[in-house]
């Protein structure tokens, strides 16, 4: 997918495939020929139901998985072909915020040590007082205070643990954050606080982000660009503004119809689209459009040929035969 070449491209994904063999069954095509770009300072939100491949895609993008085929270029370099030294540098430039703050932090470790560890590994501080100053600054930045530093992780709530996870990620001065459903394990009342925090940090530090979520209400405010994945394929991608105004793909329309609306008068006029059928198995998926069993607009061609992602209006990409010329 091409995009505005005047801006600097932070991450470029070209035709990425990540498959997993499944004993006696075949191959699970978790990510199948996915391409996109993220410009510096931009946030791409990727949404889709559980099992659509969004997290696998993100993990392959930051080098946690080796791809089947395709390329991931970070600042122009193929991350799967980097030298040991380059990979080490990448672990400071690219950081991850995990989905479950209960599982991603050692409950018996002190908050101070969790935040200081990365700085020590990457030699970002030269003495103890500099380290202490940086840890306290980071705690403050994520809405915690100095008094939290010497407490163990198990003493904190889910929202506070996610703030500690964010401080840990920021401690190595990253340029890119992969946020893997960072709010889905949190209470609804805390989710907005964490999204607002990430949004503020993105602005202050000019971070580039890949933000994974399972529904569109979670990515609405934080994303500059939104992509929708369905069974390993990217089926729609555009700027956030255009995405909410002019959705094209029937799956996107269904996802958007499920987004809650605060205004009761507007909500009354909105029609919810309920999808028919079940999600097919990602192991050996159908050869045509993977959404055809659930799509009310399915045509003969949809059973035969998998639609390609095509640009149907400026920077708005859709994979659906409804828009074939
Ligand atoms: Fe529906 Fe066909 Fe479009 Fe797939 S290609 S989303 S089945 S209309």
Structure, briefly:
This protein has 325 residues and is of the alpha/beta class.
Write the layout of secondary structure elements.
Layout: E1 9-22, E2 26-39, E3 43-47, H1 54-61, E4 69-74, E5 77-78, H2 84-93, E6 94-97, H3 111-121, H4 128-141, H5 158-170, E7 176-180, H6 188-205, E8 208-213, H7 216-219, E9 225-230, E10 233-239, H8 240-245, H9 250-257, H10 264-269, H11 300-304, E11 310-313, E12 316-318
Parallel strand pairs: 3-8, 3-9, 6-7, 7-8
Antiparallel strand pairs: 1-2, 1-4, 4-5, 9-10, 10-12, 11-12
Helix pairs in contact: 3-4, 3-5, 4-5, 5-6
Bound molecules: iron/sulfur cluster (SF4).
Instruction: Enumerate the distinct ligands.
Output: iron/sulfur cluster
* Binned strand content: 15-25%
Helix content range of the residues, please? 25-40%
The CATH architecture assignment turns out to be: 3-Layer(aba) Sandwich
Q: What radius of gyration results from the CA coordinates?
A: 21 Å
The shape, in one word, is globular
C-alpha termini separation: 19 Å
Number of helices: 11
- Going by CATH, the homologous superfamily would be P-loop containing nucleotide triphosphate hydrolases
What do these coordinates show?
- This protein is α/β, with parallel strands linked by helices and 325 residues long.
- The chain has one domain: Rossmann fold (3-Layer(aba) Sandwich).
- Helices cover 32% and strands 23% of the residues.
- It is built from 11 helices and 12 strands.
- The chain has helices at 54-61, 84-93, 111-121, 128-141, 158-170, 188-205, 216-219, 240-245, 250-257, 264-269, 300-304, and strands at residues 9-22, 26-39, 43-47, 69-74, 77-78, 94-97, 176-180, 208-213, 225-230, 233-239, 310-313, 316-318.
- The strands form 2 sheets. The chain has an 8-stranded mixed β-sheet.
- Helix 4 (128-141) packs across helix 5 (158-170).
- The longest helix is centred in the middle third of the chain and has 18 residues, at 188-205.
- The radius of gyration is 21 Å and the shape is globular.
- The model has no long low-confidence stretch (mean pLDDT 92).
- Iron/sulfur cluster is lined by residues 249-250, 289, 291-292, 295, 297-299, 302, 307, 320-322.
């Amino acid at each position: 997918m091409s995009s505005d070449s005047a801006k600097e491209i932070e991450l470029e994904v070209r035709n990425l495939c990540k498959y997993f063999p499944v004993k006696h069954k075949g191959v699970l095509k978790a990510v199948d020929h996915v391409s996109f770009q993220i410009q510096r300072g931009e946030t791409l939100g990727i949404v889709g139901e559980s099992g659509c491949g969004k997290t696998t895609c993100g993990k392959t993008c930051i080098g946690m998985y080796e791809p089947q085929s395709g390329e991931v270029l970070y600042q122009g370099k193929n991350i799967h072909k980097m030298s040991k030294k380059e990979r080490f540098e990448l672990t400071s430039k690219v950081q991850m915020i995990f989905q479950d703050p209960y599982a991603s932090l050692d409950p018996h470790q002190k908050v101070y040590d969790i935040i200081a560890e990365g700085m020590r590994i990457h030699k970002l501080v030269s003495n103890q007082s500099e380290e202490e100053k940086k840890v306290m600054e980071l705690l403050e930045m994520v809405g915690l205070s100095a008094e939290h530093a010497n407490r163990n992780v198990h003493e904190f709530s889910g929202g506070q643990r996610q703030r500690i996870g964010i401080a840990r990620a920021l401690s190595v001065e990253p340029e890119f954050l992969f946020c893997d459903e960072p709010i889905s394990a949190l209470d609804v009342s805390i989710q907005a606080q964490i999204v607002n925090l990430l949004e503020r940090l993105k602005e202050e530090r000019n971070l580039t982000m890949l933000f994974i979520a399972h529904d569109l209400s979670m990515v609405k405010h934080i994303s500059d660009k939104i992509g929708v994945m369905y069974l390993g394929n990217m089926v729609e991608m555009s700027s956030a503004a255009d995405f909410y105004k002019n959705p094209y793909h029937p799956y996107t329309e269904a996802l958007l119809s499920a987004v809650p609306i605060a205004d009761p008068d507007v909500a009354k006029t909105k029609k919810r689209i309920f999808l028919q059928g079940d999600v097919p198995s990602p192991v050996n998926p159908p050869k045509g459009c993977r959404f055809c069993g659930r799509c009310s607009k399915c045509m003969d061609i949809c059973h035969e040929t998998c639609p390609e992602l095509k640009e149907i209006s400026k920077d708005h990409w859709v994979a659906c035969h409804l828009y074939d010329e």
